[in-house]
């Protein structure tokens, strides 16, 4: 317990702890993290992942993702440029070392939006993030939100719903997530998210005052 306290304080001196958001596709991770980044300007920084999936209308290369081919992604992985990578719904996704370093160099709270394979692999690193699971109120609500989002083909939607069952089960395992948030009412879920990261927001604000 004492060692954990010391470790946490040492990490805080080095900078704020990153935050991992995970949970089924359509649970509301992007919605919540965008809201957080908007309210706390210059406190959070998004870890921009690489993916082989196509950009959706409105998404920007370098901001939402780095959109790359499978060959480029594989070459980067072979060169050891990635902290973790996974195959999700027929596409590759991965967090590059640079994506996290870019945010941490600015002493901002690095937010990672990753699937459960990513969570398992990040647990093997020394990143020491706060693990937050975002869950839908039910499979029915999740399906409706994904359909209403109108970003997926029927095939992609079914793959995501299938993966969601595993993501939901994974969130129930003890000792994986620090906080599990059910995103039913958006404002309630957002309040819970803010509460979960409050300590790190204070770390960033204190660093700003003392620098
Ligand atoms: N392991 C891993 N998963 C990622 C990464 N980037 C995104 N994901 C996950 O990939 C899944 C699909 O993401 P995306 O295609 O943007 O769809 P959406 O979650 O429905 O908006 C989600 O569960 C994301 O959390 C990454 O770098 N690594
Ligand atoms: N609490 C909520 N109530 C109703 N709709 C929501 C809520 N949270 C998110 N949504 C909507 O559900 C869809 C999926 O949310 P999104 O943030 O894209 O999920 P994720 O990033 O986890 O895939 C979006 O169209 C979003 O506007």
From TrEMBL:
Subcellular location, record wording: Cytoplasm, Cytosol; Photoreceptor inner segment
GO cellular component, as recorded: cytosol; photoreceptor inner segment
InterPro entries for this protein: GK/Ca_channel_bsu, Guanylate_kin-like_dom, Guanylate_kinase, Guanylate_kinase_CS, P-loop_NTPase
EC number of the protein: 2.7.4.8
Domain Guanylate kinase-like, chain residue ranges per copy: 16-198
GO molecular function terms noted in the UniProt entry: ATP binding; GMP kinase activity
Key words of the record: ATP-binding, Coiled coil, Cytoplasm, Kinase, Nucleotide-binding, Transferase
CDD domains: GMPK
Catalyzed reactions per annotation: GMP + ATP = GDP + ADP
Residues that span the membrane, as ranges: none
UniProt key word rRNA processing: no
Coiled-coil ranges per UniProt: 147-203
Quaternary structure and interacting proteins, as annotated: Monomer. Interacts with RD3.
PANTHER family noted in UniProt: GUANYLATE KINASE, GUANYLATE KINASE-RELATED
Family label: Belongs to the guanylate kinase family.
Protein name in UniProt: Guanylate kinase
Source organism: Takifugu flavidus
